[in-house]
Amino acid sequence: MSDPGAPAARLLLVEDNAALLQNLYDYFEGHGYELDSARDGLAGLALASHGAYDLIVLDLNLPRLDGLALCRALRGELHLRTPILMLTARDAVEQRVEGLRAGADDYLIKPFALAELEARIEALLRRSRPATTTLLRCADLTLDVDNARAERAGRPLTLTPTELKLLEALLRAAPRLVRRAELERLLWPDAPPDSDALRTHIHGLRQAVDRPFARPLIETVRGIGYRLSETAAPERGP
Prior knowledge:
Blueprint: E1 10-14, H1 18-30, E2 34-38, H2 41-50, E3 55-59, H3 67-77, E4 84-88, H4 93-102, E5 106-109, H5 114-128, E6 135-138, E7 141-144, E8 149-152, E9 155-157, H6 161-173, E10 178-179, H7 180-187, H8 197-209, E11 218-221, E12 225-228
Helix pairs in contact: 2-3, 6-8
């Protein structure tokens, strides 16, 4: 649900299915979002060209101008940096990769749960909005975002650039869980590597943040993701 204390996020929905579009309006207006919509690609291009939106939800299969062509036009011709979440009924890996390469930031395969769509929208909005807090904290762990300086209990931590990105994402979400897929998209926006590289980077982060101290902060939720918690249980592995 959008933050009631923050300005309402403006979404542009480009979707030709009338029933789905009505469901999206019913759900997201009820959750505090402002919505505009278009039923074909050319109408979506016109609205995106003249409106200031926080995020665009874009169907892949559209009349007059399909979603891939529209996405390329928004990124290439208009140089639009607004986050784009693509909806597709196609589940082939090649087609999903094509959408990401066209400029989409994320995708969701139909049919989907509206709550999952909202969660993905919230994640994209968090990544696109400027940080309002430069000093992040969890227990005795702090991160000065502007200066890329992390400390725990007053002791400086030596972190790689990738570990700094992970720590910032975990601190901004703390104590909430951050899913593996979200962290992978943060580190590798084009496509995550085939190997379990995220697990390796989490291990390095844990070695710096937790190992020298009596109380662990990084908690693994097996098969789902990670979070920073003052009540984290000791981990045997990353």
